[in-house]
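TA notes, week 10

Several of you asked for a full example with nothing omitted. So below is the full record: C-alpha cells for the whole chain, then the designed sequence directly under it. When grading your own attempts, check the secondary structure regions first.
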C-alpha cells in the first residue's frame, strides 16, 4: 500500500478546509472514484488541515493527488490557498 499526506497551512488554508467541510459529500464522491482507494481522511488543524490518502499502490496515490488538485482548481481557486506540502511513501503498518 502507498500513502499520501497533503498538509495545507498558511494563506487560505483555513478557508479551504471550511469549504471542504461544507462540501464534504461532494469531496467524498470524487475521492471514492480513485482506483485502489483504501482510506481517505481529512483532518482540521489550527491553521488549515491535512488529508491522508491510502491506496493499494502508488498509481492510486498519484491519481488521488491529481483528483484533489483538479477539485481545488475547479472549486476553490478563488481562495488562493498555498499549495500543500506533500509527503508520501509505502505503508509499513495499517491498523483498522
Amino acid at each position: 500500500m502507498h500513502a499520501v499526506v497533503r498538509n495545507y497551512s498558511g494563506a487560505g488554508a483555513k478557508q479551504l478546509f471550511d469549504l471542504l467541510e461544507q462540501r464534504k459529500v461532494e469531496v467524498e464522491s470524487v475521492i471514492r472514484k480513485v482506483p485502489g482507494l483504501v482510506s481517505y481522511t481529512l483532518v482540521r488543524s489550527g491553521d488549515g488541515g491535512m488529508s491522508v490518502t491510502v491506496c493499494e499502490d502508488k498509481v492510486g496515490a498519484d491519481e488521488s493527488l491529481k483528483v484533489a488538485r483538479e477539485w481545488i482548481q475547479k472549486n476553490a481557486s478563488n481562495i488562493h490557498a498555498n499549495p500543500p506540502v506533500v509527503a508520501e511513501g509505502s505503508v509499513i503498518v495499517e491498523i483498522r
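The mean pLDDT is 95. Use that as a sanity check on your answer.
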